[in-house]
Specification:
The chain has a five-stranded parallel β-sheet, with helices on both faces. It contains six helices and five strands. The longest helix is centred in the middle third of the chain and has 14 residues, at about 85-95. It starts with a strand and ends with a strand. Strand 2, helix 2 and strand 3 form a beta-alpha-beta unit. Helix 4 (about 85-95) packs across helix 6. The chain has one domain (about 1-145). It is globular. By secondary structure, it is of the alpha/beta class.
Length: about 150
């Protein structure tokens, strides 16, 4: 099974949608806590769902249960949580929420987790993809789209 991740920051709409289409993404799973921010531009919830369907025939799902809690997010942004602490707390939250049961294998196959960060190394979308891969009975390959 292939799972992708992508961030919309530092990408124009053409690059963003081309990457998704070129990689055969079937479903975009939005793992942002807030998907309606004005800063999101083309990635604002209703606009994004429309563009995905019209330009790429990709389904859209907003899955806030795969987002950090407000407390974890604020702690990291305020630098009261290090990235290592963030990872531990967020992975514990995924386990508590039983994240591996939230989406079917059919939905996850060729799905792409979306967040805002340009790079996946310090973004929760990477942690979500790794958590799902580690709890899947099938072989999962993760590819971070840039």
């Amino acid at each position: 099974m292939n799972i992708y991740t992508i961030g919309f920051t530092k990408k124009g709409a053409e690059r963003f949608f081309t990457l998704l289409k070129r990689n055969g993404v079937k479903t975009l799973i939005d793992v942002r806590l807030n998907n309606a921010s004005q800063l999101a531009g083309f990635a604002k919830k209703n606009d994004l769902a429309y563009f995905l369907k019209e330009l790429c025939n990709i389904d859209y799902i907003h899955m806030p249960k795969l987002s950090p809690s407000e407390e974890i997010l604020k702690g990291y942004k305020a630098k009261t949580l290090s990235w290592a602490e963030y990872e531990i707390r967020f992975n514990a939250l995924l386990q508590q929420r039983k994240a591996e049961t939230l989406l079917s294998d059919d939905t996850l196959s060729d799905a792409c987790f979306l967040c805002s960060e340009h790079e996946a190394d310090q973004c929760h979308r990477r942690l979500v993809a790794e958590y799902i891969a580690n709890h899947s009975p099938t072989d999962v390959k993760i590819k971070h789209l840039k």
